[in-house]
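Retro notes, item 3 of 5
We never archived the inputs for the nicotinamide-adenine-dinucleotide complex last cycle. Fixing that now. Sequence and ligand:
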Amino acid sequence: MRTLERKNAIVTGSTSGIGLGVAEALAGAGANVMLNGFGPADVIERVRARVAAEHSVKAIYNGADMTKPAEIAAMANDAAAAFGSIDIVVNNAGIQHVSPIEDFPPEKWDAIIAINLSSAFHLTRATFADMKAHKWGRIINIASAHGLVASPFKSAYVAAKHGIVGFTKTIALEGAEHGITSNAICPGYVLTPLVEKQIPDTARARGISEEAVVRDVLLAAQATKQFVTTAQLGALAVFLCTDAAAQITGTSLPVDGGWTAH
Ligand code: NAD
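Structure as it came back at the time:
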């Protein structure tokens, strides 16, 4: 059912993984989408064209770097110019670095805070007035189970994700009387490039094999022993954009196979 017909969305970090899954789900529900993220131009163009054609929506792309506030603001302006309004913002772009604190590179800390946390502030700031004016808006922050609980060697990531859970609540309060909801989705492990890349680093940090990382670290606490899928996260994002979810705001919704139930 095309419940999001005539809605316009920006999904950051949507050239890959969860962001792409969420963008596809929103487009599947009829929303126009602005894709964002890095990757080879021809691959991104193929993804953009496919999303537009498969779902009969407008799909456009902006390559704004989420570490650069001016580029984020320009991306919001581009989306508003192309679509006429911005109704849905999905702050999803994120990176990871796994290292014991004493070796954690300060530049990795800065990059993780900028991409995983500050970019959500900059994009929400740039789009909120438009949502208020239209008396309807949806802010969806892709946090993590690591927004609710910690794991060792992920100091910057856990700090950023806990930060975005707090940011989500503040924006919920600011949007509450303007038809704007703000929620965080907290996925457990999803087998995307971000997770695939950290398997060797975690193996090194813990001195164990890569198979042991998947079995004993990644899925150890995930009670279902299964990875979450991007389609499951996309379906939740679509639901949060429906009127049925209008009273769900300020929450952090775990989709983590029971991880944070422990
Ligand atoms: P991914 O690596 O597959 O995708 C990340 C996306 O962000 C890509 O499109 C990439 O190009 C983009 N990106 C990275 N740096 C950027 C920058 N500076 N500017 C613009 N775009 C940038 O990762 P993923 O696993 O899909 O992660 C997406 C989000 O979900 C992240 O916020 C991550 O923390 C969160 N998350 C992932 C998992 C998981 O298990 N994969 C679990 C919980 C939360």
